């Protein structure tokens, strides 16, 4: 049997060991509890959805509608006829719409002198031409035919130039408002650069192409 002093020392050693073991168990338990708490917090947290910027919708580009006068009208010669669209717009000069049609027939083309048409004026461009037409409204609405300032002459060698004149001839006036079915035969005096070439009629000054083109004879 050990002496009492030895037994007391062993008890003290055992007490220290037990206390150390208890501390380790307590620390381990605390770590486990902390880990469990963190795990629970992590599992309870809802995932954050990533927000992607919305794709911008393509901007619709305005479509440009073709004007009724965007394409050139027919090309005719003496004895032939061609249709002319009469175009009207709204109060702002926009939204052109065909309201009726005029049928234009070239009856004759004569190259004349100032004496032939009883005038003392000389042609500015080189040659007077008397153009006789029959204009008839073949649509259902009234329509205007106005040649002054709207007739241009050109050739292969000369750019387009105004062919209108203020010379007046006897007979009906072609420049008028035609009622449906109405027809007028009359003549215009044009100032052209030379015999031949073409004379074009422009329904409106804003048109991008002529409404009608007439091929002139060379003699």
UniProtKB/TrEMBL annotation:
Keywords: Signal. Coiled coil: none annotated. The keyword Transmembrane helix does not apply. It comes from the Bacteria. It comes from Streptomyces nitrosporeus. Residues 52-77 are annotated as: Disordered. Residues 97-192 form the DUF4352 domain. Residues 1-35 form the signal peptide. Residues 52-62 have a biased composition (Low complexity). Gene3D superfamilies: 2.60.40.1240. This is DUF4352 domain-containing protein.
């Amino acid at each position: 049997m050990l002496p009492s002093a030895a037994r007391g020392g062993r008890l003290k050693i055992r007490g220290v060991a037990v206390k150390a073991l208890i501390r380790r168990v307590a620390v381990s338990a605390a770590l486990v509890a902390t880990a469990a708490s963190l795990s629970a917090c992590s599992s309870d947290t809802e995932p954050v959805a990533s927000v992607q910027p919305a794709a911008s919708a393509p901007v619709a580009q305005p479509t440009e509608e073709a004007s009724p006068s965007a394409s050139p009208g027919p090309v005719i010669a003496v004895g032939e006829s061609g249709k002319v669209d009469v175009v009207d717009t709204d109060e702002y000069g926009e939204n052109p719409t065909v309201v009726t049609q005029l049928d234009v027939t070239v009856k004759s083309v004569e190259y004349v002198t100032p004496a032939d048409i009883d005038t003392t004026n000389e042609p500015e461009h080189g040659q007077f031409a008397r153009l006789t037409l029959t204009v008839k409204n073949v649509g259902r609405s009234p329509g205007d035919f106005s040649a002054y300032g709207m007739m241009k002459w050109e050739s292969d060698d000369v750019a387009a130039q105004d062919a209108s004149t203020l010379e007046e001839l006897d007979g009906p006036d072609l420049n008028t408002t035609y009622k449906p079915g109405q027809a007028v035969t009359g003549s215009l005096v044009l100032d052209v650069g030379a015999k031949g070439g073409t004379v074009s009629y422009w329904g409106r000054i804003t048109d991008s192409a002529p409404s009608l083109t007439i091929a002139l004879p060379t003699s």
